[in-house]
Design brief:
Keywords: Membrane, Transmembrane, Transmembrane helix. This protein is mainly α and about 160 residues long. It has 3 helices and 3 strands, in the order H-H-H-E-E-E. Strand 1 and strand 2 (about 145-150) form a beta hairpin. Helix 2 runs antiparallel to helix 3.
Length: about 160
């Protein structure tokens, strides 16, 4: 096993960094910026030194602030994600029984509707058949109301209340 020496690792790191910097900032633009900074430093050495020290000493608090702001952002995103998942779980605890109940009611109503339709269809067919071969008995009581009993061919009695 060959272990790379510090010079080899450092040169690979420099090459890797240089490659990625070249992708974002072309070498011509970097060279122009270096030239402008060097010209400014030669023309105004005291101001360039002041700006350099300001950058050196202010970069640490700025980086700490950016790290703090980033961590607050990611903690807030994490808390929002956790609370969203928790509240969605609670909502599911209500949704599942509600869906079960709604499904049971829907199944009951559909079975009732189909059953009612089949009973009505059967009664309609029985009454249609009994019209041709049925006897109708009517009774009138003393109060003026009438009752009729229709006798079908299969011996089924159908009471018709309140009139014929």
């Amino acid at each position: 096993m060959v272990v790379a020496g510090p010079n080899t690792a450092a040169s690979r790191l420099v090459g890797f960094t240089q490659h990625h910097v070249d992708r974002f900032v072309p070498p011509e633009s970097r060279q122009r910026a270096y030239t402008h900074v060097l010209d400014f430093a030669m023309a105004h050495p005291l101001l360039a030194t002041f700006i350099l020290f300001e950058v050196i000493f202010c970069i640490i608090p700025v980086l700490v602030f950016l790290a703090f702001a980033g961590s607050v952002f990611f903690v807030a995103i994490g808390a929002a994600l956790v609370s969203t998942l928790f509240l969605s779980g609670l909502a599911l605890l209500l949704l599942v029984p509600a869906l079960f109940l709604a499904s049971a009611v829907a199944a009951t109503v559909s079975v009732w509707a189909v059953g009612s339709f089949l009973v009505a269809q059967w009664l309609y067919n029985v009454l249609q058949q009994s019209e041709t071969t049925s006897t109708l008995e009517t009774k009138i009581d003393g109060g003026g109301s009438r009752e009729a009993v229709k006798m079908g061919p299969s011996g089924i009695k159908v009471d018709i209340l309140g009139g014929v």
